[in-house]
Amino acid sequence: MPTAHLIDGSLYVFRAWHSMPDEFHDADGHPVNAVHGYTRFLCELLEREKPSHLAVAFDASLTTSFRNAIYPAYKANRELPPPDLERQFVQCRAVTEALGIHVMIDHSFEADDLIGSTLWGLRAHGFRSVIVSADKDFGQLLGEHDEQWDFARNLRWGPAGVFERLGVHPEQVADFLALCGDAVDNIPGVPGIGAKTAAALLAHFGSLDELLDRVEEVPFLRLRGAASCAAKLREHADAARLYRRLTRIALDAPIEGSAEVLVRRRDVSTLDALCEQLRFGPLTRNRLRALTSG
């Protein structure tokens, strides 16, 4: 099957920001440590995989996504990136485009939604997708032939790996996170229901909707605190349904639908000027030139 690599770009920019020493500066004296780290990551991925179809999705919707509109507390626990990092995000997108890679970004939909919508559309055209990210949310997207790749740890898994990590199947991931919550995104979940209880409930009932429709059966399960759990589910049923609207990756984000847009374009016209501005060393410049001249 043809394969598309769909990359969670923001994750790798943040990782580079935290891991690279603050000793790199561009021609204007601004820090570019995240840009250097991200560029090395991207070069390594291209050199190792030689992907025929790929895209990088970036987040630009920390306070403006459709999820904020329905739940204002969504991701309210996160600080906005400092100006130095915001500038570097723009530069990382420029590097991505200079390598001829399709960039996806939207102010209403998150990178997860852009990747999910792209994967969904490609699947209809016979593609399998490799999602390059460590984010557990992506487990809900994995179909029979798809794969998630934690690049930093070089770990890959398919649908069975989702169950090994979370105790639920891909189609249950959004329901699972709605029940037990996701502190990273400031989603509280149903009080008193942790990951093990959420997984046990979904193993028995199959889905959040079925669980809430049959909540009267919960006290009779062999589950510690089953009666209290049932009471919490009755009290917070509407909240759980709302949380699932947050945890479910959208498949209708505005994307360019054809697979052709994911084919790399070979255009070196902007590369040299970008290398000068970012003050890349000779090793990085040679890697970039090799990747754009093939």
UniProtKB/TrEMBL annotation:
GO terms for biological process: DNA replication, Okazaki fragment processing. SMART domains: 53EXOc (SM00475), HhH2 (SM00279). Keywords: DNA-binding, Hydrolase, Nuclease. Residues 1-265 form the 5'-3' exonuclease domain. GO terms for molecular function: 5'-3' exonuclease activity; 5'-flap endonuclease activity; DNA binding. SUPFAM superfamilies: 5' to 3' exonuclease, C-terminal subdomain, PIN domain-like. Gene3D superfamilies: 5' to 3' exonuclease, C-terminal subdomain, 5'-nuclease. The keyword Nuclease applies. It comes from Dyella choica. Pfam families: 5_3_exonuc (PF01367), 5_3_exonuc_N (PF02739). InterPro entries: 5-3_exonucl_a-hlix_arch_N (IPR020046), 5-3_exonuclease (IPR002421), 5-3_exonuclease_C_sf (IPR036279), DNA_polI_H3TH (IPR020045), FEN (IPR038969), HhH2 (IPR008918), PIN-like_dom_sf (IPR029060). This is Exodeoxyribonuclease IX.
